[in-house]
Amino acid sequence: MLKKLYSLLAAALITGCLAAAAQAEFSEEGLAIIGLKGPNALQFEANGFTGYTDRYMMVSGLTRIYNEAGEPISLAELKIPCEARILYKKRASDGRPEAVSITILGYIEGQETETKWSLPEIQPPPPQ
């Protein structure tokens, strides 16, 4: 009887761990050249993402952005074009990729950088 109880507890524990692993958020980090930015999105050329092929990524007030010295900056202070390491996740609400952190690695040689908005605000998709 006690052996059967232990077996049931072990099965429940394994099942719970597998369910939690299946629900874990997808995230990926890669290199990109950020060319355009807007109040809530970036457009870029990706070099190192395997699970993401679109050229746009959402950003929010929770996105951590660091300049080339490793100091935190705001999205408004982000100079483009630049080369950056981006960590992103897919949002649970609509599956769109959203940047978790952006670390500036450098700027494109021979190109002038600027901080102005070059993309309009991207609207969320309509509910289905």
Roughly how many Å is the radius of gyration? 20 Å
Shape: globular
Low-confidence stretches: 5-24
CATH architecture assignment name of the domain at 26-107: Beta Barrel
- Level-1 CATH class name of the domain at 26-107: Mainly Beta
In brief, what are we looking at here?
The protein has 128 residues and is an alpha+beta fold. It is built from one helix and seven strands; from the N terminus they run αβββββββ. It has a domain at 26-107: Nucleic acid-binding proteins (OB fold (Dihydrolipoamide Acetyltransferase, E2P)).
Task: Walk me through the structure.
With 128 residues, this protein is of the alpha+beta class. It has a domain at 26-107: Nucleic acid-binding proteins (OB fold (Dihydrolipoamide Acetyltransferase, E2P), Beta Barrel), CATH 2.40.50. The chain has one helix at residues 2-22; strands at 27-37, 41-46, 56-58, 64-66, 72-73, 82-90, 97-107. A seven-stranded mixed beta sheet has the order 3-2-1-6-7-4-5, with no helix packed on it. A hairpin with a 3-residue loop joins strand 1 (27-37) and strand 2. The radius of gyration is 20 Å and the shape is globular. It starts with a helix and ends in a 21-residue tail after the last strand. Mean pLDDT is 76; it is low at 5-24.
Write the layout of secondary structure elements.
Blueprint: H1 2-22, E1 27-37, E2 41-46, E3 56-58, E4 64-66, E5 72-73, E6 82-90, E7 97-107
Parallel strand pairs: 4-7
Antiparallel strand pairs: 1-2, 1-6, 2-3, 4-5, 6-7
Features:
single chain, 128 residues, alpha+beta, OB fold (Dihydrolipoamide Acetyltransferase, E2P), 7-stranded mixed sheet, 35% strand
